[in-house]
Amino acid sequence: MLAGRDSGDALIRDDLERRGLDRDVIEEALAALPPEAERARAAVERGGPGILRKLAARGFSPDVLEELAAVASGRGDLVD
């Protein structure tokens, strides 16, 4: 599943829509996942250079990414 591969809600939603799932089913699936911010923080802990850029490309919301950047502003490897 995409959530297990560091994908954000937007990418997961898009994938499920392309597979033809009903909107309600998609929202239920997203609601069953850990919150997007929690998944992003876990990815940052595991990640390496440029992890925020990678997360942005994987469909994480700008709000989540901005929060992570603010919290981890001392880690230059997040955005390189």
Helix and strand topology:
Layout: H1 9-18, H2 23-32, H3 36-46, H4 51-57, H5 62-71
Helix pairs in contact: 1-2
Describe the structure.
The chain is an all-alpha fold and 80 residues long. The chain has one domain (2-78). The protein is 60% helix and 0% strand. The protein is built from 5 helices and no strands. It has helices at residues 9-18, 23-32, 36-46, 51-57, 62-71. Helix 1 (9-18) runs antiparallel to helix 2. The longest helix is centred in the middle third of the chain and has 11 residues, at 36-46. The radius of gyration is 13 Å and the shape is elongated. It starts with 8 loop residues before the first helix and ends in a 9-residue tail after the last helix. 21% of the residues are buried. The model has no long low-confidence stretch (mean pLDDT 86).
Quick overview of this protein structure:
The protein has 80 residues and is mostly helical. 60% of the residues lie in helices and 0% in strands. Helix 1 (9-18) packs antiparallel against helix 2 (23-32).
Index terms:
5 helices; 80 residues; 60% helix; mainly alpha
